[in-house]
Amino acid sequence: MIIMIAAVAENNALGKNNDLVWHLPNDFKRFKSLTTNHHIIMGRKTFESFPKPLPNRTHVIITRQNDYNPEGCIVVDSIEKAIAVCPENEDSYIIGGGEIYNLALPFTDIIEITKVHHTFDADTFFPKINENEWLLVESEENFKDDKHLYDYTYETYIRK
């Protein structure tokens, strides 16, 4: 299965200046638990936003730069090639950024969204989920607290 995973604001904002514009520790834990021991597909800028490669995951990076070759990563030049290098019998996760989400949407089977209940000034956005193509099958509300400044909801969509 190809699974898209993202934290998205009410206005579909993903981030600004190659960084998130909110901090939700529980969402980071969820991301880690879902993606650990799987292939994660991302664009070069998303990869470069990490302080180091994420442990216990195979990084597949999409870039147009021919000489880009970070150690321990698989580098390809298209979403089709990124999907092709992932094991067919395992879940693989699309983790961003905005351009990669748009390219990967036609290949995606499941979308795991953390909907952050706020709007943000951003320069990167998640594609609109077309309700004619996607069915919301799970929703779990979470409320702001001393570690989370915003209410948020985990949502799982499957392709109709």
UniProtKB/TrEMBL annotation:
Classification via Pfam families: DHFR_1 (PF00186)
Coiled-coil positions: none
Keyword Oxidoreductase attributed: yes
Ranges where the DHFR domain occurs: 1-159
GO CC entries: cytosol
EC class name: oxidoreductase
SUPFAM superfamilies: Dihydrofolate reductase-like (SSF53597)
TM ranges: none
EC number: 1.5.1.3
GO molecular function: dihydrofolate reductase activity; NADP+ binding
Gene3D superfamilies associated with the record: Dihydrofolate Reductase, subunit A (3.40.430.10)
Protein's pathway: Cofactor biosynthesis; tetrahydrofolate biosynthesis; 5,6,7,8-tetrahydrofolate from 7,8-dihydrofolate: step 1/1
Keyword Transcription assigned: no
Function noted in UniProt: Key enzyme in folate metabolism. Catalyzes an essential reaction for de novo glycine and purine synthesis, and for DNA precursor synthesis.
Name recorded for this polypeptide: Dihydrofolate reductase
